[in-house]
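Box S2. Input/output pair 1.
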Amino acid sequence: MPPAFRRAVDGLTSARMRPEIELDTAPAPKRLAPYAYALEAAVVADDEDLADGRLVLLHDPDGHEAWQGAFRLVTLVRAELEAEMAADPLLPEVCWTWLTGALEARGLPYDEASGTVTRAGSYYFGGLADRRPATQIEIRASWTPREGSGGVPDTSAHLAAWCDLLCQVAGLPPSAPSTPDGPSAGVVSLPQRRGPRRA
């Protein structure tokens, strides 16, 4: 394992999380980069999942032309929506700004951000007809964290920003007061939707 990648992983494992976030390691993809490390998380309140996601750190010591760097962060974030929020035509754009805003609120420089926001609806019939329709938002994204001292990005801070995104999608308020230009200024979170813990 290259020393730079080891230090980047150490940054992920040493980060402190909000108490609502359950974080654990996950199997890392093997074909996206020579080195990879993955985490999965759920935002949990009163033993119920409000949102969940996955964050993968990729590293290519030789650099990657598409990344414009040697490191890349890849994420998937999901949450179920209330009906009135799901109907908002601007929801995909708002969700994307939550990702970029979470990084910028912590002063984290990044490049080559890209991704998709998907809104999917489920309707139930037959033996499941007693269930109410459900809508889920899904954010898939990746970005290149700029490298700091020793050629290693501040992965701990990037993980904290990602957790900010998870909590915002889950409908939780910011964890601490911030400056007028910080994360709590003009922030609108998804309303909390309580459901049973996912298996």
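Box S3. Input/output pair 2.
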Amino acid sequence: MPQGDYKKLADEELVFRYAQRGEQAAFATLFERYGHLVYGVCLKYLKDAEAAKDAMQQVFIKLLEDLKRFKIDSFKPWLYQVAKNHCFMQLRKTVHEVNGEIDREADMEFDDGWHHKIEQEQLLDNLELCIGELAAEQQVCIKMFYLEKMTYADIAQQTGYTMMQVKSAIQNGKRNLKLKLEAKRNVST
């Protein structure tokens, strides 16, 4: 198919052609179509042009695999959510580090509640670790439901799980997360 013809295709057709047929031109067309949107979202949240450019590239690099893994019905809103989640994860990592140690003075200059920020960072790190310890089905469903803000139906459609499996994985995953977080908290106190 000539390069120009890809521009006439719907987003979902481009996703299909890339994910199922490996057509690189389809992915390139999605990048041309939505690179500026992802950059804009990243700039809105990260407030820095260079960081936004880097984040946009990271989002599209991640898409190279994600488009093959998930069934995506509405590409543009899904991509917007992926970009937003990526920015939130980047913002989480803003604790200043100097030689591997937290730069408390720099934090204090900008934020009187630096100790609260560090506690939040530790909680988020623990949460990330605990999610990684869940069963695979629970991990996928928890991430999609809470981080990507997907509905049960969307999760079922993208994963191939039944609606009952999705509900069960989220319910059991939440319970297991709570237990794992409490155990980590008890160990650290």
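Caption for Box S3: The domain at 1-94 is CATH 1.10.1740.10 (Rna Polymerase Sigma Factor; Chain: A). The longest helix spans residues 163-188.
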